[in-house]
Sequence to fold (465 residues):
Amino acid sequence: MSLGEDVRFAAHEIMEQEEVTIISHIDADGIAGEAILAQALSRAEIKTHSVFVRQLEPLTMHLVPQDDTFKLFCDLGAGQQNLLEERGLPEDNVLIVDHHVSQPCEMEYRQVNCLPYGHTKMSAAGVAYFIAKEMDSGNVDLSKIAVVGNVGDMMAREDCGLTGPAREIALEGRDHGCIDIRARDLNAYGTSTRPLHICLAYSDDPLIPGISNNINGARQFLRKLGIPLQAEGGRWRVWEELDADEKRRVTSALVQQLIACGEPVDRLFSETYLFPDEFVRTPVRNAQEFATLLNACGRWSQPRVGGAICRGDRLSAYREAEHMLANHRAVIRELLQYILDTGVAELSHVQYIHVGRKFPDTIVGIGAGMALSKLNIHKPIMIMVEQPEDPVFTKVSMRTTERVIAKGIDLQQALTVASAEVGGAGGGHKIAAGAFIPRESEEVFINRVNELLAGQSAQPGQGHC
Ligand SMILES: [Mn+2]
Fold:
């Protein structure tokens, strides 16, 4: 079998259905994947309704209806097939569209999963797009949302651009005219909405001495280059609106700065994905910021607002999402500050912090990733959080860096093993993973994860994720 064959089978299977329930994940990739599948289905005149879950786990399984609609799982399900079985879902009534590691189970649910085919850098929205495209080639316009999902799941991060099938989607979107691919663009977040000096100061991949984490430094750097920070009328300018000559002046000065400090320059540039049909200086203008907007919707438990934006709403849903985005950023900044102020505890191979109920579980992963660049980046970080509505389980999020996984570290493996041993469940990727564990096992669990990571780092590295 190949991914293409699985996609054809899935498209055929879906077209046979009269009524479908989509169960999807509440993050940018899940929201994008749901929007792609739901639009493809409704264009094919198949009745569809959707359910969003934070995570597929015993406590959320009641959200999966026990009716006879066809169940389409998106961005989840592969690692929780035992739960689908326990829920009594029959084999022939389920299709899983996912990119996570599968957990074996008695039932053999059908899946379209890019991971077993070696496509480690494509998200569920990408898989969903291939199915939609197979259902009807007119669904090529959904490539835009697929790119948002992929970028949202950080599939473009390691290689500074999408690769493999995920990039093919971007190319299809470019040919269709809905995606503008910018080669060797600045590898920084916020190129469409952040004031230029803020955009530079907030970017830390690569870390540019004197500019990263230094707003004044960034402002002076741009002044020296004679780049006006403000447009007529005093509005802040953004990277995207600089002309080609200005961009060249900035990037070559950044290159010089990095070389002067003996830092590698390769990560300064990235392929980026812009949407020419959107207004300039809005977050839906580029894939990265669009994804953040969707994540903000998920964080505020309003995935349907994100879904409406994926479907083209630029009025009420869009305004609502912008408001959530502002709050989202404020809470993440607060979490980051809390981690830095409180400090992390360190074991030999992991650093960790328990934030109790102070922060929503939906942002701790993002906060962990951001905190890592300001802590010991050589040691994976673990954040534990309690969810007020869940008295039994503690949620665990872990993040590390490309450099650490190149040495053999695999967070997915460590969390899957350690959580199973204490009666919890875990999954994810080498670089970012999560788990639920019984609250009373926290200490045993941390020590076990440390032990597993120590074992991994003793093995020769694989060098890829
Ligand atoms: Mn995903």
